[in-house]
Write a structure and sequence with these properties.
Distance between the termini: 17 Å
Oligomer: single chain
Structural class: alpha+beta
CATH class of the largest domain: Alpha Beta
Number of strands: 4
Low-confidence stretches: 1-6
CATH topology of the largest domain: Alpha-Beta Plaits
Radius of gyration: 18 Å
Helix content: 25-40%
Number of helices: 6
Order of helices and strands: HHHEHHEEHE
Strand content: 5-15%
């Protein structure tokens, strides 16, 4: 059983791969495949050797590890509004929010659609996910909002 809130670690995923560098998938190496798997760019079934006899257990583990990503947005961010207290930490620490509206760094409310987060009716909301630095094509590994969320309402997979 996989623990909840586990972050996908390419090395952990790599250890479940055949490690053959067979070049049958894209990308061409198992380590590169593990990295793309952690980003959600490929799925475990995209690795032909994993579908062969002898790898059933590893394939099942990989499917279980990546399953939470399937419910996340393209950035891997999930915001559980039930857990959110509306503290606004995500708004204040988000580099995009601060760049778009510098007063947010001082705790002022975000007002434009140029920010990622906004507190509305006492709950944080993702209002413009496309502005997030994690959004393709940049896919920066920014986790600031998750790190400063005091109620674990924000999870990044």
């Amino acid at each position: 059983m996989v623990k909840k809130n586990v972050k996908l670690n390419p090395m952990e995923l790599y250890n479940l791969l055949p490690k053959t560098n067979c070049r049958l998938c894209e990308p061409k190496t198992c380590m590169a495949f593990a990295t793309k798997l952690a980003l959600g760019d490929v799925q475990p079934d995209d690795c032909p050797p994993l579908l062969e006899s002898g790898f059933e257990e590893n394939l099942a583990k990989l499917r279980e590890l990546v399953a939470p990503m399937l419910t996340a947005e393209e950035t891997g961010i999930k915001l559980d509004e039930e857990k959110c207290t509306g503290c606004g930490n995500c708004v204040v620490v988000c580099p995009v929010d601060v760049a778009a509206e510098p007063p947010t760094s001082l705790g002022k409310a975000a007002m434009t659609e140029e920010t990622v987060f906004r507190v509305e009716n006492g709950i944080s909301k993702i209002i413009n996910l496309q502005k997030c630095r994690r959004f393709p094509p940049d896919r920066l590994n920014c986790r600031v909002c998750e790190q400063y969320c005091c109620t674990d309402a924000i999870e990044i997979w």
